[in-house]
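Researcher: Good morning. I'm working through a list of sequences from a screen, and I'd like to move beyond sequence-only analysis. For each chain I'm collecting a predicted structure so we can compare shapes side by side. This is the next one on the list. No need for commentary yet; just the structure.
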Amino acid sequence: MPRGPGYRRSVAPLRQIDPAGIYHVMSRGNFRQPIHLDESHYAKKVSLVRRVARRHGWIVLDWCLIPNHHHFVIQLTDDGLSDGMRELNGCYSRWSNLQTGRTGTGHLIKNRFHLVPVTSASHLLELLRYVPLNPVAHGVAKTLEEWRWGGYRANIGLEHPYPFHQPAELLRYFGGDPGTAVEQYKAFVHEGLLRRSQVPWSDHGYDVIRSGA
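Model: Good morning. Structure tokens for this chain:
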């Protein structure tokens, strides 16, 4: 169809992505609706992350799925972030819509995935504390240790990590000795529970972690 001279197509701006950078990525359900409805939905998302991470060379330092959104901390090795997230969100949305009969009723995932580049060591550390706190902060788990759909249990050695998740890469930021690193990491994350009780919880948490404070 011909377009008039005043026609301007709305196109989202291109993102500048470091092909070897570390990124915090998040996607949320449209209108904050749940996107992970039951165990089968969490398991499907995990299987898709496994495939996408392998295909695009992601090193997943940490991750967390809760009912209406997900978080990943990804070390890139050869770009692939935008393509991988489009594949992940697109495949998951199509599968979920078919399972629930939502096809044709609108988008499951809100807009493009949210992207925050990690800009400093302190920024990364706060992010590695923020992500595992989500299940407790949002009231879907009473303790950090009980939530199955995130990386924390594997990070502290309670279970084997999924193939896409590399706790050893996370723990090296907490010390050279594996046992000491686990204890340092646990203490660091649990300190965040105390801080959370003193400061109102942010649904994004970006104001703190983006500044590297």
